[in-house]
Amino acid sequence: MAKVTIQYWAAARDAAGVSTEPVEAGTLAEALEAIVARRQDGRLRSVLATCSFLVDGAPAARAAAAAVPLADGARIEVLPQFAGG
Questions:
Q1: Dihedral angle at the C-alpha atoms of 16, 40, 44, 68, nearest 10 degrees?
Q2: Which helix H or strand E contains 36, and what residues bound it?
Q3: pLDDT one-digit tens code per residue, 2-45
Q4: Residue from 13, 82, 23 nearest 43 by CA
Q5: For 9-51, where are the alpha helices, taking DSSP H only?
Q6: What would you report as the CA-atom Rg of the chain, rounded to the nearest whole angstrom?
Q7: How many helices and strands in the chain, by DSSP H and E?
Q8: Which residues of 4-35 are buried (b: 16+ CB within 10 A; e: fewer)?
Q9: CA–CA separation, 25 vs 30, rounded Å?
Q10: Nearby residues of 38 by Cβ (< 8 Å), 6 or more positions away
Q11: 3-state DSSP call for residue 68?
């Protein structure tokens, strides 16, 4: 398991209640499952369904999240949809 940092932007930050948080995971899918499991209200899960992700600056598709390995120290950016782009 890699120790990584999740960074939330805009609506994702609001749903998570924090701007960053650490997580241990081997893949992007595991990281996303871990952060959703920490919250009871389901709000973050709903926001994540429409988000884009960057892993160390490289785009990572949610559909392929199980195939995106994480290295120690990686940064996952959670980018929700926003008006105008």
A1: 100
A2: helix 28-37
A3: 999 999 999 999 999 999 999 999 999 999 999 999 998 999 99
A4: 13
A5: 10-16, 28-37, 43-48
A6: 12
A7: 3, 5
A8: bebbbbebbbebbeeeeeebebebbbbbbebb
A9: 5
A10: none
A11: coil
Locus of tokens 């008006």: 83
- What is d(CA 42, CA 46) in angstroms, rounded to the nearest whole number? 6
Domains of the chain, start order:
2-79 (3.10.20.30)
Q: What is the per-residue pLDDT across 43-71, written as a single tens digit (0 to 9) for each? A: 999 999 999 999 999 999 888 999 999 99
Total number of residues shown for the chain:
85
Q: Has this prediction a pTM greater than 0.85? A: yes
